[in-house]
Amino acid sequence: MRDTTCFRGFCLLASISLLALAGCGDTVEKQMAKQVEKSPNSIMGKTTQDIAEFDPNAKQEVSDSKVRIDTNDITAPVTAPLQAYGPMVEQISKTHVAHALSLFNATEGRYPESYDEFMEKIIKANNIRLPVLPFKHTYSYDVAKHELVVIKPPAAEAAAEGAAAPATP
Q: Are residues 71 and 7 in the same domain?
């Protein structure tokens, strides 16, 4: 009888302790915010609505958003996820905007007629926040093709950035 009482007391004390400790921890959001605060140069967790108007006549390189992994590199098992991050974020962002454009087309019977209408009726109206891209890649909207494109930085800028981090194709 005494053993049962001690066991119940121990279980009760352990349960109360666990409940008290559960309320003391930071939420995932707070932990991510602390991580971003620790490294102000990090793009992780940062979003943007900065989307430029695509100029097809300008000399700019459009990213194809394909994941390319150098399998001959001995460090590929470690660096492959880092190499894939940029193209994967590009693909997800393009899909998100393409879906919003499809919904707009379905309700209005047309696509946005201008860059300003795209920003107002697609991005702002849907409160779309896109992840900040690595390697100084930027978003642009191609009015003629009705699609979001990702622009690579000029070669000189990419070379300077490449010294700090591996470049994505």
A: no
Asked whether residue 22 falls in the same domain as residue 103, the answer is no
Residue-wise pLDDT for 72-93, tens only, equals 888 888 888 878 888 888 899 9
Question: Does residue 169 lie in a domain region?
Answer: no
Average pLDDT, the chain: 80
User: In the predicted model, is pLDDT for residue 106 greater than 90?
Assistant: yes
Residues for the chain: how many in total? Answer: 169
Task: Give the residue among 89, 93, 99, 67 at the shortest CA–CA distance from 168.
Answer: 67
Task: For the full predicted model, state whether its pTM sits above 0.90.
Answer: no
Nearest-angstrom CA–CA distance, 89 and 64: 12
Residues 6+ apart with CB under 8 A from 91: 65
pLDDT band at 28 (very low <50, low <70, confident <90, very high): low
Boundaries of domain holding 100:
46-162
For 93-143, give the DSSP string: HHHHHHHHHHHHHHHHSS--SSHHHHIIIIIITTT--EEPPGGG-EEEEET
CB 118 within 8 A of CB 112: yes
